[in-house]
């Protein structure tokens, strides 16, 4: 990390700082958007899996197949499908986000599955016995209890998406460079000082959610002990 910081200081200038801020903004936008959509899409899939049945298992297997494939394969599939059936979508931010969601949806599903497994059915049954409809019981009981798992799912997907390189290289719009791209491009030519600034920014962005999680857990532990 010290060596990385030295390279970053060596390659940083006024123009470089503005460029890094732009690349960081691109990374935050694509990773944040992808994480939000993936978490929202994962919830009904996780619920279907938790309820069991062939339909739930089939849906879960289909949704989780994306993570078994390398990012470049998902990206090439997105290119092939978009150029054949949705030409205007090719080379857009939307297609990049779609590929990210397909790639990282399984992570969000697994996190929310784990959260649902920790919610006792007796809590939902108690709400139903008090007159709540299934939808109201889900909204008033399940969703609040699932909030920590949902937050964890978002953070996991965000951290994975923010450093994704192969899919970004293939699908990014013209002029839309992210931090991983700006690390890889100069590093392949041995320009480590130029790559160091983007790499350090990527490390800092990755550390922020982890620090927030640790602070939250410390606060929860302090409340519990009190």
Give a written overview of the molecule:
The chain has 226 residues and is mostly helical. The chain has one domain (2-225): MetI-like (MetI-like fold). The chain has helices spanning 2-11, 14-51, 54-63, 71-85, 93-117, 121-129, 134-162, 166-171, 179-187, 192-225. The longest helix is centred in the first third of the chain and has 38 residues, at 14-51. The protein is globular and about 65 Å long.
Task: Supply database-style keywords.
mainly alpha; transmembrane helix; MetI-like fold; 226 residues; MetI-like
Summary?
This protein is mainly α and 226 residues long. The chain is built from 10 helices and no strands. This is Ferric iron ABC transporter, permease protein.
Reported by name, the CATH topology is MetI-like fold
User: So what's the overall shape?
Assistant: globular
What value does the Rg take, in angstroms? 21 Å
Number of helices: 10
Number of structural domains = 1
Q: Mind telling me which CATH architecture this is?
A: Orthogonal Bundle
Strand content is under 5%
Low-confidence segments: none
Q: What share of the residues lie within helices?
A: over 70%
Mean pLDDT, rounded to whole units?
Answer: 84
Chain-wise SSE layout:
Elements: H1 2-11, H2 14-51, H3 54-63, H4 71-85, H5 93-117, H6 121-129, H7 134-162, H8 166-171, H9 179-187, H10 192-225
Helix pairs in contact: 1-10, 2-3, 2-5, 2-7, 2-10, 4-5, 5-7, 6-7, 7-10, 9-10
């Amino acid at each position: 990390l010290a060596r990385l910081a030295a390279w970053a200081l060596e390659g940083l200038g006024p123009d470089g700082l503005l460029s890094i801020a732009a690349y960081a903004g691109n990374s935050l936008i694509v990773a944040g958007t992808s994480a939000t959509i993936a978490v929202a899409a994962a919830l009904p899939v996780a619920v279907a899996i938790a309820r069991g049945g062939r339909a739930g298992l089939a849906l879960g297997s289909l949704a989780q197949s994306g993570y078994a494939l390398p990012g470049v394969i998902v990206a090439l599939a997105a290119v092939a499908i978009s150029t054949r059936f949705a030409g205007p979508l090719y080379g857009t931010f939307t297609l990049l986000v779609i590929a990210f969601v397909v790639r990282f949806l399984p992570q969000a599903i697994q996190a929310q599955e784990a959260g649902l497994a920790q919610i006792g059915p007796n809590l939902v049954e108690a709400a139903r016995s008090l007159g709540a409809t299934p939808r109201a019981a889900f909204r008033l009981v399940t969703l609040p209890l699932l909030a920590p798992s949902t937050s964890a799912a978002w953070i996991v997907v965000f951290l994975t998406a923010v450093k994704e390189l192969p899919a970004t290289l293939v699908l990014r719009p013209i002029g839309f460079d992210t931090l991983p791209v700006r690390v890889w491009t100069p590093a392949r030519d041995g320009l480590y000082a130029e790559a160091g600034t983007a790499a350090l920014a990527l490390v800092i962005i990755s550390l922020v959610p982890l620090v927030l999680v640790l602070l939250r857990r410390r606060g929860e532990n302090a409340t519990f002990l009190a």
